């Protein structure tokens, strides 16, 4: 049994200044104001678009992100409908095979402080449950069950890999929901640092999201 932490990688090669220039060229089509393009005008226009709520213009650029998380978190991610997804399939992936290390991989829970007795007790209960799920899955496969049959015993904590493509407007919506204090701790574990990375890569567009 493997236990790993969630992670992400941004698959799109992003040049933030070029993104802003692209959005400006698109937006100025509406007013045929291309003649107003100048040094620094792209950032100013992007800020104006967002402040005025004219976010349809920022739909004209998309970013693809690869996320490793648990199945429960992935269920929340795919509720964002204006996106494209590719996800590791438990129907077709046979985790008893060598390429998976003949083991299941689970995402480590982030909400228990294992330096305390109470936290360690909860973590140990969780770990035993994962060990049992892995044992049941492997026994089903050994008994001739197909992966799509054996997956019925797999828990939310199972690691999954999901590739997400969203336009910038939908990424803004995603971050507003998934970095909020009342969002699930495990999706915040991905969304908070991902938002910070987006802010580094693309100026202006995400600056108003805490």
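Q: What amino acid sequence fits the structure above?
A:
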């Amino acid at each position: 049994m493997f236990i790993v932490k969630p992670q992400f990688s941004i698959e799109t090669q992003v040049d933030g200044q070029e993104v802003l220039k692209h959005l400006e060229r698109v937006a100025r089509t509406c007013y045929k104001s291309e003649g107003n393009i100048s040094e620094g005008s792209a950032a100013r226009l992007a800020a104006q678009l967002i402040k005025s709520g004219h976010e349809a213009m920022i739909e004209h650029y998309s970013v693809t992100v690869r996320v490793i998380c648990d199945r429960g978190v992935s269920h929340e991610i795919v509720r964002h409908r204006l996106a494209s997804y590719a996800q590791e399939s438990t129907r077709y992936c046979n985790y008893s095979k060598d390429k998976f290390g003949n083991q299941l991989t689970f995402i480590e829970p982030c909400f228990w402080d294992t330096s305390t007795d109470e936290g360690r007790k909860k973590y140990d209960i969780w770990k035993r449950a994962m060990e049992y799920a892995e044992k049941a899955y492997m026994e089903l496969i050994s008994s001739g069950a197909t992966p799509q049959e054996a997956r019925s015993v797999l828990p939310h904590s199972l690691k999954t890999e999901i590739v997400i493509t969203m336009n910038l407007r939908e990424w803004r919506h995603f971050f507003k929901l998934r970095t909020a204090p009342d969002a699930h701790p495990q999706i915040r574990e991905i969304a908070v640092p991902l938002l910070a990375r987006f802010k580094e890569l693309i100026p202006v567009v995400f600056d108003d999201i805490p």
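Q: And what stands out in the fold?
A: The two ends are 37 Å apart (CA to CA).
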